[in-house]
Amino acid sequence: MPLPPTAPQPGPDTGPRNAEEVLVAPVALAGSGSSRTVSEPLDDAAGWSKVIAFGTDTYYTSPCQRVRIANPVEGHYGGWTITFAEDALGVPDWITTFDRNTPAEVVNAFTTTLVEGLDNNFRDRLQGGRHFTPSSPAALLSERNWQPAGHQPGAHYQLSPDGHAAYRIRLGRLHEFDELMEPELSTWRLSGGLDPLTAPTWRAYFSTSTPQHLITASAMALADHAPVSRFAPSIPDLHLPLVTIHPAPGPQQPRAAAALARSTRAPRNPDAASPVVPAQAAYSTPPRRQR
Q1: What residue ranges in the chain does DSSP mark as E strands?
Q2: pTM to 2 decimals?
Q3: Local confidence band at 189 (pLDDT 50, 70, 90 cut-offs)
Q4: Is residue 168, in this structure, part of any structural domain at all?
Q5: By residue range, what is the domain housing residue 117?
Q6: Which pLDDT score, from 0 to 100, does residue 114 have?
Q7: Is 269 within a domain?
Q8: Structural domains of the chain, count
Q9: What percentage of residues in the chain have a pLDDT greater than 70?
């Protein structure tokens, strides 16, 4: 089984509580963020049960018993795994895995949309529903100027305009049980990092039967230009030359100022850097499983 692409980046849940908050863009390079971005809406979801095992691992179950959401800290992928089984005691119909470095906003978009639509079997998201979107995730990303990229046989890639986020569709027939056992074989993948195609910092995997509107929710969160909230020390060092950091509302603190200063430095090896405009020029005013 392949090792995770990088060591987990420290987030606000593992660092000092008084670390300064900043606004970071793009989200693909902002780091994983706080697990509370995902867990707090689940804690508030009506009828969902929650169990904490071994003092660290968190498990949620839907009222209908068909959905399981797991956040085991020390596992291989270490992030969030979501499964759905029409038969609550049966083999999952689909599985989605967000590794430990996936931005929390990408996970939250998926889980929030899942919770909101589960009661009526996603009727509002199906054809004729008020939230139905006929376009595929690939089409919606294309509308946002994501371009075809990569030449790996058996896969189609789209790359974000800044070159640091990617969407992959695996081509050809794949046995569904292979996807359930090994996320790397999943039909769809979102990823981000300095090289999101071949060496991403984080990956999110979606098996073939994952509802399209749930994948779309995560894809749109990834494509959103709005800055996201992070604690300054949690931003991956390798990403600092390529992100824009603004102080969060309120008085700026020394640690946030240090992150701002570091983000403006040029990469140590410019020839190896991705061909995008670094730091402040890269982003001005936003257009507003683990197993």
Answers
A1: 21-25, 49-53, 57-61, 67-71, 80-84, 94-98, 147-149, 155-159, 165-170, 188-192, 202-206, 228-231, 244-247
A2: 0.78
A3: very high
A4: yes
A5: 36-223
A6: 95
A7: no
A8: 1
A9: 75
